[in-house]
Amino acid sequence: MNEAQILLLTTASIAFLHTILGPDHYIVFTAMGKARQWSLSKTLRITLYCGIGHVLGSVVIGVVGLLLGAQLVSLIRIESMRGNLGGWALLAFGLMYLAWGLGKAGRNRSHRHVHSHGGVVHDHEHDHHDEHTHVHDQIARNSITPWAIFIIFVFGPCEALIPLFMYPAAQHSAALVMEVALVFGVVTLLTMTAAVAITSRGIDRLKLPSPGRWNHAVAGASVAICGAAITMVGL
Questions:
Q1: Which of 12, 75, 77, 140 has the most CB atoms at less than 10 Å from its CB?
Q2: Is 113 within the bounds of a domain?
């Protein structure tokens, strides 16, 4: 096995570990997919799009840096800034979604009405929230959420790609640089989608108690925890 093959094999291994050890790469999509009742195919499609933006962000910066002859330390500094921005953006999005979910749960709280008809007393339970829900508002929320996640993931860097692979590959050939980027991207995307599929199916098979009207709040909390893990722990 020559040096280039070893580099590509190492790239694939690190791409896999980079994705699995970063829970934001799959928990975010699984949580939001369950809360918003997306089909698994739609959840995986959104995961794929966000993953492509995630990888391409670092690839573009790395390629531009190589073409301009930028120092490695400069590119690492840029990736660090993007990582901090992406982590805080994910945390903010999670907290806002949590707040919205708590408000929605409060509005959806059911209550009882007691009626008497001809001496017969009965009660029924309902809520009024759906009476005031407009179709256009629901469509807007469904369309904004994936775009918000996509933008956040574009800012989130693939930290290992530039310092560990692109610069060593650049010492060999431009073709190897592209091979490294392609291997890293493909393995990252495959791992993200596989992890989302496994966690989504796993939740269904475990038949965990449904959070009911709290499902959006739970999803927001999950996303916020991922954002906190990035900003405070460095995952």
A1: 75
A2: no
Claim: this prediction has a pTM higher than 0.85:
no
Q: What angle do CA 15, 7, 161 make, to 5 degrees?
A: 40
What's the domain range around 163?
Answer: 3-107+131-233
> Is there a domain that residue 75 lies in?
yes
- pLDDT tens string, the chain, 235 residues long: the values are 788 888 899 999 999 998 998 888 999 999 999 888 899 999 999 999 999 999 988 888 888 887 777 677 777 788 788 878 888 999 999 999 999 888 887 776 654 545 555 555 555 554 544 444 444 445 444 567 888 888 888 887 777 787 777 777 777 888 888 888 899 999 999 999 999 999 999 988 877 666 677 788 888 899 999 888 888 776 6
Which helix or strand (DSSP H or E) is residue 7 part of?
helix 3-20
* Contacts for 161 with CB less than 8 Å, ≥ 6 apart: 55, 58, 59, 62, 180, 181, 184
Q: Quick check: is 116 in a domain? A: no
Distance of CA 142 to the CA centre of its chain: 15
Closest CA to 8 of 192, 187, 171: 187
Count up the domains in the chain and report the number: 1
